[in-house]
Design brief:
single chain; mainly alpha; two-stranded antiparallel sheet; 4 helices; binds iron/sulfur cluster
Length: 105
């Protein structure tokens, strides 16, 4: 039996996962971002100094791909404002409607 604090945390993480799925669908439907936008997003992420709960930079390379935090497939439930969205950034940068979970771009 989970405590109320745990239940609230789980609810928040489930809501985050639902929001993330909605954002992904919206991004995919929005079309491609321009090359300039893609480069600007890359630069902002590369310079991003935000860290996760373990003090590790959100911007990271996992198996040769850039991610914002631990890949979501490895950690489905999360608070994106703290742990990063877990998106593969090359995909996220490429769509017009994509957004940084911390509002940096
Ligand atoms: S998407 Fe935002 S939070 Fe994530 S690495 Fe890029 S700038 Fe940082």
């Amino acid at each position: 039996m989970a405590c109320n604090k745990c239940k609230a945390s789980i609810r928040r993480k489930l809501a985050d996962a639902a929001r993330s799925a909605g954002s992904l669908a919206k991004s995919l439907a929005s079309g491609s971002a321009s090359t300039e936008t893609l480069k600007a997003r890359y630069k902002i992420c590369e310079e991003c100094d935000k860290t996760d709960e373990n003090g590790k930079k959100l911007f990271r390379t996992v198996k040769g791909r850039f991610y914002c935090g631990q890949p979501r497939v490895q950690k489905l439930l999360r608070d994106s404002s703290r742990a990063g969205c877990g998106c593969p950034l090359a995909v996220k940068w490429a769509y017009k409607a994509s957004k940084c979970p911390l509002g940096k771009w």
